[in-house]
Amino acid sequence: MARRPDPNRKAELARAAFAALRERGVVGTTMSEVALALGMKRPALYYHFKDLGELFDAVLTAVLADQREFVLAGLDPDDHPIDALASWMRATLAFYEADPQLIGLLLQFWAVGRPDAARDVLDRARDLVEPIRQFAIALLQDAVRDGRVRPCAPGPMLDLCVVVVDGCLVERISRGADTQPILELFITQVLLPLKSPAP
Fold this sequence. Notes:
Elements: H1 7-24, H2 31-38, H3 42-48, H4 52-73, H5 81-97, H6 102-113, H7 118-145, H8 154-175, H9 180-191
Helix pairs in contact: 1-2, 1-4, 2-3, 4-5, 4-6, 5-8, 5-9
C-alpha cells in the first residue's frame, strides 16, 4: 500500500512554493520550476501534489487557515455579537491589507493551476467558511431573541457584512482605494445601530 503524504509537510511545501512563486511570478510556472525553486527533485514534488491545481488547492487552504487564525486571534468571546461582527470585518480586511498583493497572486495562481475549476474552487472556499457563517448566524439569532440585538434577519445581515468586506477587497485591488472609511461607515451606520440599548 502506498504511503500517503504527511498533511503538515504538504501544507509547509505549499506555503514555501507560494513564497517562491511570489518572487519569480506565477504566470507560466511549471511543476519543474516549482521543484527547482524549492530545491527538491520533481518526483518528490509530485509525491505531494499531482499538478499545479492540487498545489493551488493546498495554497488556498493554507491562506484561508492563516486568515482564520489571524481573525480569531482578534475576537473576544465576551464581546457583544454586533461588536464581534465588526471586529471580524475589520480583522478580515486587515489580513489582506497587510499583504496587498496576496489576493492578486492567488487569482493568478488560480488561473494557472485551476483555470477550468472555478465552481470547484469557490465551493471549497465556501465549505471552509460555511460552519463559521452558521455559527455567527446562530449567535445573532440568539441575540435578537434575548433582546441584545434589534430585530433583523441574521442570515441576510451576515451575508451583507461579507459582501461589504468582499467589496472593500475588490475596491482595494481594482482602484487601490483606502477602504477603511467605507468599512467604518458601514459599521457605524448599519451594524452598531442594531445593538439594543442596555436595559
